[in-house]
Design a protein that fits this description.
The structure is a single chain. This protein has about 750 residues and is of the alpha+beta class. It has helices at about 1-30, 35-50, 60-80, 90-105, 110-135, 135-185, 195-210, 250-255, 265-275, 295-305, 335-375, 425-445, 450-465, 565-575, 580-595, 630-645, 650-665, 705-715; strands at about 210-220, 235-240, 260, 275-280, 305-315, 320-325, 385-390, 400-410, 415-425, 475-485, 490-495, 500-505, 515-520, 540, 550, 600-610, 615-620, 670-675, 680-685, 715-720, 725-735. The protein has 18 helices and 21 strands. Strands 3-2-1-6-5-4 form a 6-stranded antiparallel sheet, with helices on both faces. Strands 7-16-15-12-13 form a 5-stranded antiparallel sheet, covered by helices on one side. Strands 8-9-10-11-14 form a 5-stranded antiparallel sheet, covered by helices on one side. Strand 10 (about 475-485) and strand 11 (about 490-495) form a beta hairpin.
Length: about 750
């Protein structure tokens, strides 16, 4: 019974003490309320002295002061009215502070420390006030204990709600950051243009977290392919800046300018180390290390730039340049989260810039190779007047393998060639060069069009086997046409290539170019090169003098925005009003059919046909009798006299004698001699034998074998041309005088 009585007495005493403490705390709180502003100032000063970094954010500093004021009033109310601390809720001002901490990227431990500092400071002020109101040490001790227990519960409940608000805001910020990074991935690198990609980086950044952005690339990043950029001698070229508003600092600098950062400067160190940097500056120390003009630095001071991020642009282990992000419109400086975000966006942009740089280098190399392999200037020849164009594609696929060629042939004829290698890039350009070389080699031996394409088909098949590229097989198309100005016949064969357009002058409307007739001949088209085993066919049609042969690749008429029929209709419309100049016609065709950058390469070859006058060609049918040889010498001499070329009589008679003798001895009738005067003098002897003569060096006592050797020494050029019926042996001589009249055109 004694124990229970003692316990009861203790409970009564505790109840009395508790009641006394609550009453005492209520009295202390009432006494402090009139001085609440002073308490707020003391607590704010304490927090600022312990966490000065919070005061660099103006809005956060203001919000902390408001939250402390609400916190002081809430604690005083809690004690004045003896409220239940377990039902206390965090104040809206405290929740707002927590959210601002999250927005500025301030770590959560700083938030919790500010809570503890604020409450500890207020608790100390209340205890000091209590000590002034009573000298009862037991009451003061009980009061301190009660305040401590109250503080733990108060801080736990309010900080828990603040942490939840902080995390919610942080999650929203991270989600916005993820959205921004995804947006940057979609907006940056839309093209393979270095300058455009850099400008896209600047645009995305100023839309979200920076006021001014400049992007500078190492000048070595624009050098030839195979040379990687290096920051060892960091000459930078500004390629992008945003925003482009009148009077803004970056408009003072301008794009395209080059400069070098001093080695001791922060930008140079950032590029050398590859580490992004964050700097806070004042108007008095706008850095000279920015490496810009004095006008630019003055503009920075005028606009009050106070915070700068320096982010090196790195991709695949190489430093490409530097991006600078600046703030001046808001007072908030860049924080660590902004630095991470800028670094993430810049890293993605750097990869896109490097892709654009490598693509530009490869495209330039392929285009240089392509143009070097194309015919630079059409050779002079009497058969046609030519004009040509090559237009590389503007898509990411790169330069293709389109080509054209004009090849003079024997007998005043000319070969017109257009081809297209499937694919793009260096490989397509190199393959194009090999095929063009093969075509020229086959043209030198005067193969007819279908036979030439058959041999070219074999070349492509051999290339496929040699390269062993798996499923990436080599394929090409080719159109080979031969025009003869004597007969005005055009012979052509196509290996999967689009047929030419033929523009003939109208016979009813005089010389009016608007009355031209445009036809697309319906001729057989063989399979593309590289399939093998399928035949090609040569077609012939007569072309009036002054007609226009238009050879092109499919990129001229095919486009994603229109079908082939529409392209052909536009082609017909332009050609129907063909002006006199072929160069103007080429330009009109390209501007009409390809107003923007083409999606595929385009090769265009236009040829206006000429015809040799009857007095420029002489033909004799010869009997297969050795006695006719002397007659042929006389025919040749008389014809040369008629042309005013008596100086060539001796050599011409000698060559004609040897060629006719060989035809009579080894060939088959009918035998024909033909002489053609154009830019050169050509002698041709044809017969119906397919046996070709071979040049050999006769020994001392040989009776034969000197004829062709003699012809080869006297002629500037000679050769054999096979026909369906037999062969033609020809020899050419240069006209003796520069003033010799050219063919009548």
């Amino acid at each position: 019974m004694v124990g229970y009585a003692h316990l009861y007495a203790l409970r009564v005493a505790f109840s009395v003490v508790t009641s006394n403490v609550e009453a005492f705390l209520s009295e202390v709180a009432r006494g402090l309320k009139p001085r609440a502003d002073q308490l707020v100032d003391v607590v704010v000063h304490l927090i600022r002295s312990e966490l000065p970094e919070l005061w660099k954010y103006e809005d956060l500093a203001t919000a902390v002061s408001v939250a402390v004021s609400g916190h002081v009033i809430a604690v005083l109310d809690l004690n004045e009215h003896s409220l239940d601390v377990t039902k206390v809720e965090a104040l809206p001002a405290g929740i707002d502070v927590a959210r601002r901490f999250a927005r500025h990227g301030v770590p959560i431990n700083k938030l919790l420390r500010s809570y503890r500092l604020g409450h500890a400071g207020l608790l100390q002020l209340i205890c000091d006030e209590a000590a002034h109101l009573t000298s009862d040490t037991e009451l003061i001790s009980a009061t301190v204990i009660a305040l401590g227990a109250q503080s733990f519960e108060y801080i736990d409940r309010t900080s828990e709600q603040a942490v939840m608000a902080y995390q919610e805001e942080r999650d929203r910020w991270l989600q916005r950051r993820l959205i921004l990074i995804n947006e940057a991935g979609a907006r940056i690198g839309t093209t393979l243009d270095i300058t455009q990609t850099a400008q896209e980086l600047a645009n995305v950044s100023t839309d979200h977290f920076a006021d001014l952005v400049t992007v500078e690339l190492l000048d070595s990043a624009f050098q030839e392919a195979g040379v990687e950029p290096t920051p060892a001698s960091p000459v930078l070229r500004r390629v992008a800046q945003q925003p482009l508003l009148d009077g803004c600092p970056e408009s003072e600098g301008g794009t395209g300018q080059k400069h070098t950062y001093p080695e001791e400067s922060d930008p140079a160190r950032a590029m050398a180390t590859g580490q992004p940097q964050r700097h806070q500056i004042t108007t008095s120390d706008i850095p000279g290390w920015l490496g810009v003009s004095p006008d630019y630095r003055r503009a920075l001071r005028t606009f009050g730039v106070h915070s700068i991020l320096l982010v090196p642009l790195q991709a695949r282990g190489n430093t490409l340049g530097l991006a600078q992000f600046m703030r001046h419109r808001t007072t908030d400086p860049f924080d660590d989260d902004d630095l991470l975000l800028a670094n993430e966006i810049a890293s993605r942009a750097a990869v896109s810039i490097d892709n654009a740089r490598r693509y530009t280098h490869e495209r330039f190399t392929a285009l240089t190779l392509q143009r070097s392999l194309l015919q630079q200037q059409a050779p002079e020849q009497p058969a046609v007047e030519t004009a040509c164009r090559y237009l590389p594609c503007g898509s990411r696929a790169g330069v293709g393998g389109d080509w054209y060629d004009v090849i003079p042939l024997s007998g005043a004829r000319v070969a017109l060639v257009v081809g297209d290698v499937v694919g793009h890039g260096l490989h397509a350009s190199a393959t194009m060069g090999r095929l063009r070389t093969a075509v020229r080699a086959f043209a030198d031996i005067d193969l007819i069009p279908d036979e030439l394409l058959t041999h070219l088909d074999d070349v492509v098949i051999r290339l496929q086997r040699e390269e062993a590229r798996g499923t990436d097989e080599i394929s090409a198309t080719c159109l080979y046409a031969v025009y003869d100005p004597v007969s005005r016949l055009c012979s052509l064969a196509s290996a999967g290539h689009v047929l030419p357009a033929v523009v003939t002058p109208s016979t009813s409307s005089g010389d009016d170019p608007a009355s031209c007739n445009v036809d697309f001949p319906q001729l057989p088209i063989g399979p593309p090169l590289g399939l093998g085993g399928l035949p090609f066919e040569t077609a012939q049609f007569e072309v009036p003098e002054g007609s226009l042969l238009v050879l092109y690749t499919d990129g001229l008429i095919e486009d994603r925005a229109r079908d082939v029929d529409t392209g052909l209709a536009l082609l017909r419309e332009v050609l129907a009003g063909t002006p006199t100049s072929l160069e103007d016609t080429c330009d009109r065709l390209l501007s009409t059919l390809l107003p923007s950058r083409p999606s595929d390469d385009v090769a265009l070859l236009m040829a206006r046909t000429r015809a040799l006058d009857a007095d420029q060609v002489a033909t004799w049918d010869l009997l297969p009798d050795p006695a006719i040889v002397s007659e042929t010498r006389r025919y040749a001499s008389e014809q040369l006299s008629a042309w005013g070329l008596e100086d060539l009589a001796f050599t011409t008679e000698l060559m004609v004698s040897e060629l006719v003798t060989n035809a009579i001895r080894y060939g088959k009738p009918p035998i024909r001699l033909r002489m053609i005067r154009h830019t050169t003098l050509t002698c041709e002897v044809s017969d119906n034998s397919s046996t070709a003569p071979h040049l050999r060096r006769a020994r001392t006592f040989d009776e034969n074998g000197r004829g062709l050797l003699l012809v080869a020494q006297l002629a500037g050029n000679w050769g054999t041309r096979h026909t369906r019926e037999g062969k033609v042996i020809w020899a050419e001589q240069q006209l003796p005088a520069i003033g010799t009249p050219l063919p009548h055109l």
